[in-house]
Design brief:
Blueprint (H helix, E strand, L loop, with lengths): L2 E8 L2 H9 L10 E10 L11 E12 L2 H10 L1 H6 L3 E13 L19 E9 L4 H17 L3 E9 L3 E8 L2 H8 L10 H11 L3 E16 L15
Antiparallel strand pairs: 1-3, 1-4, 2-3, 2-6, 4-8, 5-7, 5-8, 6-7
């Protein structure tokens, strides 16, 4: 069964730009099914803030044939060696909403793990360019809801211009994530996500969109001076 991974690292402006421009080389990486290489963003930051797009911070969301392929990439690929200096988590697929091309999402999801265990959520969207202003209007309040939610252990976003956007969140439990999605959390403005989903159903922002749920199975390295973001996982 395939395994997914999410990576964050910091590098120089030149190395980040070079990697973005040459990321198509990832397609020939042995054992890699598909990867999205993006520039990191601060979830909930103002659109024109210098904190919004973090040019020296890069993210990669990838699907692999097995964990050995991840190890080979990090140890012997030039781009992989950039990511080996950062942080990443390895993920077992649980569930999908929506659809996205290029990845090979299992058709029959496994049984969900217990609702009180940590869970990772990844959203990935291909934007309809004329709908970006509407997406920002409805999306930024949701970003703030997620960023400030007491059930979130870690959250970030990323972008690959001109039209790919993504979010990555680690939740204390599946139940707390579900409560946020359906507006059942005891937090201010709890219906922001529900309202944005209704607006998307009225007129879609994207031509492709998916939310993927994962069980974290391993965590490696440090990010912003910290490790062990996910409870009960050992850094290896």
């Amino acid at each position: 069964m395939s395994v997914f991974s999410y990576h964050l690292t910091k590098t120089s402006y030149l190395a980040a730009l070079k990697a973005i421009l040459s990321s198509r080389e990832l397609k020939i990486t042995p054992g890699l099914i598909h990867a999205e290489y993006m520039t990191a963003m601060t979830l909930g930051a103002a659109i024109y803030s210098p904190e919004r797009i973090l040019a020296r911070q890069v993210a990669m969301f990838a699907q692999w044939e097995n964990e050995a392929a991840i190890d080979r990439f990090l140890n012997s690929n030039s781009m992989g060696q950039i990511f080996s200096k950062g942080w990443h988590t390895r993920l077992a697929f649980l569930r999908q909403w929506g659809n996205i091309s290029a990845f090979q999402i299992p058709g029959e999801p496994p049984a969900l793990n217990y609702p009180d265990e940590p869970v990772v959520a990844v959203t990935l969207a291909r934007m309809k360019l004329p709908e970006i202003p509407r997406f920002i209007h409805w999306g930024r309040p949701v970003e703030k809801l997620v960023r400030d939610h007491p059930g979130v252990l870690f959250s970030t976003a990323s972008i690959r211009l001109p039209r790919t956007v993504s979010t990555f969140t680690i939740w204390k439990s599946q139940q707390e994530m579900a409560d946020m999605v359906w507006g059942n959390s005891a937090v201010p403005h709890q219906n922001r996500h529900v309202n944005a989903m209704k607006e998307r159903e009225r007129k879609d922002f994207h031509f492709e969109f998916t939310t993927l749920r994962f069980k974290p199975i391993a965590e490696f390295g440090e990010w912003n001076g910290r490790s062990n973001y996910i409870p009960n996982l050992k850094e290896l």
